[in-house]
Amino acid sequence: MSQSDRGLRRLAAGTLLVAFQGTTAPDWVLRELDNGLGGVTLFGFNVASPDQVRSLTTALRASAEPVISLDEEGGDVTRLDYHVGSPYPGNAALGAVDDVDLTRRVYAAIGSELAACGINLDLAPSADVNTEDDNPVIGTRSFGADPALVARHTVAAVAGLQSVNVAACVKHFPGHGATRVDSHLAVPVVDVGLDVLRARELAPFRAAIEAGAKTVMTAHVAVPVVTGDTPATLSAAALTGLLRGELGYDGVVITDALDMHAITKSVGLANGAVLTLAAGSDLICLGPIPGEDDVQRVIAEIVAAVAEGRLPAARLEEAADRVSALRSWFGTPEVVAAGQNGVGLHAARRAVRLTGETEPLVEPLVIEVDTPPTIAVGNVPWGVGPWLPDAEIIRVEPAAADVPALLAKAANRSLVIVVKDAHRYQESQELVSALVAARQDATVIEMGLPVWRPDSAAYIATYGAARANAQAAVELIIA
């Protein structure tokens, strides 16, 4: 391979954020980092403990200064606390409180934990304006449905993270909040005019850019008025025209995970990498599925695209310059003391809402109504079990629940029913309604968005299913 070919391959590799299985870095990842790989994205399967993550990131930095990223949104989406649930309540709860200083402090605490583990880029916050109640992928990840509220809290989140030298990644541009399709599975569409798009979806991104957000993440969402049928991730009109041109953004543009079906089932992984670079992306998050062979194919396809004239070499050089500037902003990694989790519980307590009156608990039976996890969240534990150690807890599939048997078991005992996004699941609503009809003294805890509630019963809204949300809810019924 000639020197020029090696240089081109290094530029191609420099656009990639790869993932890998396990809690230690594979040899191929370390080798590719030596050869210019942009960096890595960590997931829950890479995390065992803060000390282990710090050892992992130290190994990744042995011969390079890579971008080391993960999704740490607080609330439902967590990687550092994937196995136990987050100590921070998440965006919907922060939006319900609507205290921008609190949001800034929560994100500064999250950032300090990441920095202490050697992570320099947080793929957060979500700046999506969640105007669609049945949104299957955003929901409690959004600060709310009001663009001005989402904008001011997005700015606060960016300020909090970047105050501890962890780069924020404002997502999912140009907005995933008005969709009813999960882009992990297909291409969602936001079919609105430019006036609505500018006033609603783009308002938080415009505010975050003005506030100095270091990175912006694309969405695999089609916006016909801008992109036609093409997902924004692959659209020059969205990334170069709208984001770079109209909004004036000159930071690093990162793709959402390219292994999602919105890309792989339409244009393919390697071709998608070329198309998004041509459209204006600088770093490609490949997602958790692609392995070493896939990474090699993606690099080879980018190199071939330059050789064949499908991708200008100048586009790779521009991306490299932006990523280099981001690395310079990171500075020299230092051992940072992690922030205290107390601010997370404080925020969750301020967010939780009780309607009606609860009775003192007597041999409580807790029925947790099972809810399928989204792909973005994964199998993060949720529920009130850790905070009610003396309660009997039953998790039931709503379609298979035996209501008479459950009511018999709850006889002469306190009944607590825990649900998550009941408004999205008719079977959950029917089960809760049947239980409450017989037990109007029950307490219902909603750990998703509080859109639907039964006609009677005390009702607690947590605005999220994180560990902190659960503790705050239980404190209301044992006080």
Automatic annotation (TrEMBL):
Keywords, alphabetical: Glycosidase, Hydrolase
Domain Glycoside hydrolase family 3 N-terminal intervals: 34-325
Top-level lineage group: Bacteria
Pfam family, one: Glyco_hydro_3
This protein's record includes keyword Hydrolase: yes
Gene Ontology molecular function: any one: hydrolase activity, acting on glycosyl bonds
Record EC number: 3.2.1.-
Family, as annotated: Belongs to the glycosyl hydrolase 3 family.
Name used for this protein in its record: Glycoside hydrolase family 3 protein
